[in-house]
Amino acid sequence: MVTDFLPSRSPAAPFHTAKATGTVVPGVSVTAPGETVGAGTTKTAATGAGETVLPFETAGAGTENTAATGEGESVTSPGVTVGGGMPKMAATAAGVSVTDYASSIFIGLIVFNLFSELAYRAPMLLHEHVNFVKKSIFPSETIAWTATIRAFTYGGVGFAVYIVFRLLTAGTIPLTIVLTPFLIAPFFLFTIGIVWFLMALGAFTRDVAHIMASVVPVLMFATPIFYRLDQIAAMSGSVALWLRLNIVGDYIEMLRGLALDGTIPNVFGYFALVAISYAVFLGGYQFFMRYKSVIVDVI
After folding, report:
1. Between the CA atoms of 261, 262, 263 and 269, what dihedral angle is there, to the nearest 10 degrees?
2. Edge to edge, what strands does the sheet with 36-37 contain?
3. 68, 149, 181, 265: which could join 254 in a potential S-S bond, CB 3.0 to 4.6 Å?
4. 3-class state of residue 42 by DSSP
């Protein structure tokens, strides 16, 4: 028969099989409990006998891979830390704890996301409500109030989440947080003034929405969300001076002081911010009302 001329192979000896005694197959290594993996790393019951360990995937010299490796951590390539390594390094560089650093970013994102949502939507608000504007006697300027109140409601929910997070992690919140409404009020005026201005521009051309889609992401990195202005001032005073022209960034810094650091903002800086916000509020309203009668015909 033809099968008589074929070489026989024992089913107990498959190709590329390595016993649990440390036999090496190209590309992988198979070890049993107690054998050494890498430079001084001991493999125990965490991985089990006969499991494969990729080349160079060690925990570093002198480390031990046991069942209690640590919460969220794993054995990785040399120099790589898993389980919160990046936040820890960033917090260490900033000189604060991980929870303080996370809280600082959270506050920045609450304020900036509130502003960016309105900046994205404002140019198209009149187009979204064209039936109200063209087919009824409707005060179109109130659309800005509705959109802004909606965004601030969502922002308030986010701020409530921050308070709960802070109470769970730090156990307390600064008393200066009760002054937050005095900061929210001028920020509301500033935001609705921007919305009125963008609404009027967006009625004439839809390209404003595309421009804002390009400007807002760039503005995010020019806003102190992932850093603080005093850190930039320590490296370059001129850059920090330019960044202070960003009104949204000033509000973020003041809110951090009230809700996180327990410090009261500079009085002169606060009233200057209120004056600018009120000027933006009046300017945006007058700009919208000036072209309100024309807007009905162009949208």
Report:
1. 80
2. 36-37, 41-43, 64-65
3. 265
4. strand
The pTM score is 0.67
Residues with Cβ within 8 Å of residue 173, at least 6 apart in sequence: 163, 166, 167, 259
Q: Which of 92-101, 232-241, 289-298 has the lowest mean pLDDT?
A: 92-101
Report how far residue 29's alpha carbon sits from residue 41's, in angstroms, rounded to the nearest whole number.
Answer: 14
User: Is the C-alpha dihedral spanning 254, 223, 211, 116 positive or negative?
Assistant: negative
- Contact between residue 20 and residue 2 where contact means Cβ atoms under 8 Å apart: no
Instruction: Tell me the domain boundaries of the chain.
Output: 19-83, 93-298
For the chain, state the CA radius of gyration: 30
Alpha carbons 140 and 296: distance in angstroms, whole number: 9
Nearest-10 crossing angle of helices 142-169, 98-121: 170
Which of left, alpha, beta for 101 (phi over 0: left; psi -120 to 50: alpha)? alpha
CA atoms within 13 A on the CB side of 80: 9
122 pLDDT more than 60: yes
| Size of the chain in residues | 299
Which tokens belong to 224? 């102190």
CB-CB contact of 198 with 143 (8 Å):
no
What is the token pair recorded at 171? 């156990």
Report the DSSP beta bridge partners of residue 30: 52
Q: What is the pLDDT of residue 95?
A: 60
